[in-house]
Amino acid sequence: MELLKIKNLSFTYPNCDKKALDGIDLSIEKGGFYLLCGYTGSGKTTLLKLLKPETAPFGEKTGEIEYSDVFGSEVSPFDIGFVSQDPNEQTVTDKVWHELTFGLENMGLSKKEIRLKTGEAASYFGIAEKFNCSTDSLSGGEKQLLTLAGAVVTNPKLLILDEPTSQLDPITAVSFIDTIRRVNRDFGITVIIAEHRLEDVFSLADRVIAMDAGKKIACDTPENVCSLLKDSRLFMGFPSSARIWRDSGSSGRCPVSVREGKAFIKEIFGEHIAEYVPEKSEINESPEALNVKGVWFRYEKDLPDVLRDFSLSVKKGEIFGILGSNGVGKTTLLKVLAGLNKPYSGKIRVFDKKIEDYKRGALYKSCVALLPQDPKTVFIKSTVREDLEDILINCGAKKDDARKKAEETAAGFGITELLGKNPYDLSGGERQKCAMIKLLLTDPEIIMLDEPTKGLDAYSKNRLIELLNSLKNEGKTIIAVTHDIEFAAAVSSRTALLFDGELIAEGEPREFFKANTFYTTAAYRIANENIKNAVFCSEVCAAVKEYTGKNE
Amino acid sequence: MPKEKRFFREGGRRVVKAFAKFHPVTLFAYFAVILLFSMFIRNPVTVCLSLLGGAAFCSTLTNKREKLDDIKFYIPLTVLIAITNPLISHNGKTPLFFLNGNAFTLESIYYGVFIALMIIAVRMWSKSYSRIVTSDKFLYLFGRFAPKTALILSVALRYVPMMKAQAKKIKDAQKTLGLYSKGSYADNVVSTVKVYSALIGWSLENAVETGKNMKARGWGHGKRTSFSSFRFRAADAVVLVLLAVFSAAMLISLRTGRLAFSFYPEPTALPADPVSVFAYVCFALLSFIPFFIESEENIRWNCLRSKT
Q: Across the interface, do B173 and A377 touch by the CB < 8 Å criterion?
């Protein structure tokens, strides 16, 4: 049964020539699980927001959205639940219970009904224990779960999620997606979810809707979408198994999960075990950029240690990737390394000089820079241009020079059209890029990045990897903490795992990811039984091609 | 962020005090009555009783270190007030010595001690109040008269820790970008202004998002109800009745002057006729209600434990 039908829908934002949506036709079945994928700026969010009358943006709209009889004569706000990216922006009140009851109070239900419904919901979503807590004592994952619970508690017909996991770490993200899937299965609530990280959600979807530049380019089962979009630039963000399938030139049914990918590889290789022979990597013999010895850190005297006897050595011109789960102290570690948090014991040397000997912010002058997790905190002015000029002036440039240099730099990075915009109006990827450029204007030698891929689509991620590699070639040292395994594998010269206050494993990415079972790339998980040494999709593909070529 | 987590008192698993389980109306009425009586009855016996009851209850809420800190603070405070009062007030019949031609009287010292005890008693009750009547109970009480204001308060309460955290984040980010680097006072001021202007921008942006979100979740869609998980139990009725009876007894004694006492020119005899004694007993029972409730639960638990 059809829940709603979108007929030739187009949308243009005010003061904008380009159509954000261009002739979308779509039919949403009741009880379906729809995955909406596409790059930033493809119109995903616009489409999702238009589906809910209260969130519909202002602008010129043509075409129609026809709601079925299920919604009654008028679509009430309680019939469509909406969960967006940032859990902080969606939390309204200060208490967990109040957050759950908020929608029900707005419905005007009696106390008794509210008590029953919230009790049920809190139990179902596993947040009963936190019922009386303050909302800001929750972790990001718990907050997002609370938002979902708050949306589901009013018993909606349709649940819309706009990149709900972009601010979560991969493990929390997977369990969040599972919860959504459970809501869909247990209650038959129709789900439309937009996502960048497709590895896990792709195979769960009944239908995948692909969008590019405001147009719908496909809407079909996951396997069929893979076949249809073989040549699309969207494919870059598809799951590893699908990428291996395409790049090795295979035909037939496309594998869309790690399990199917494994079977796919097994079918080709059988019992044969191939080996990928990597190129010998060069040994970096540059001097040390950063040396940390026996550092201990905690926030307060009576709190547990975050770093325990932590040691680290990073050479100049290296990209050092530090992995770790949420709450393990990655951000704290970066702040210690950047001199923002002072350890109570141990030594940190930056370019063979003690960190304490950098006086009066000398550390942050052409030496160390830190890109925080939330790039919004980097901007302090109302336009990107002003921000870039401000930092140049702060570095000692004259006003006219600053203006000129800001424009030159912007042109160099291809962000000229963003200069006049407010940093808050940029998309996640754009904002991150601008923040990075602002940081580079201080001409740092060591660049520290805190979760640089958070909320980025596959395209922006690849651009970031290119940028980091070019900085590395210029001789800059980069330290990145991340929970994005694929990103760490692709970009770092050395990778380490932070656990329990110290680095427990460290090595070249290949050695590192080969030794791990959980913290490893999807490509390795797919291929490790048949192809040794292959950590990336491209390597698996090369091995597959070589083997099939040999057998013909 | 372990540092921020320490601010949250009402954690999910924290043991709830027996007295805190009462209905907000009961709690509010109780604290209002005991605070008013402690402040406005000028009688050493009632003040002492209030102090003892308050301290006894407060001791069930605080840990060892807090208790020690309290004692360390209140003893010098008492001495200080006892000494400074005679310096200001020269009433009284019994001069001990003369300072600059002004009498330093024994009665003034007595009065100073009395004031100090009263202040400590009020402090004890206020401290207990802030731990027992938490923000959600307060909002529940006043939310009935002004539901919208109550919701706004709830939203605002969330903003305080959030803005604090964001200010720190922005400051840290800007530090590594070269703000606060010159070390001069002027530079610090300029940097702080920049950080706070960014914070204001962020909070406005956030407020707009919150508003949109509230609307998306049905705010302003028809008539709204207000939920609370508080229940009025029989025990609440009992406490309220006791409160009414004791207060009535106190008020009658006050009206008939049975509790009257004055320090100047010399301390009057403590009223000790049967009616006054009855009033003292009432007040003692009144001020020990929370402590009794707390102890009763403790005793019950000890019995349960020893049986198994």
A: yes
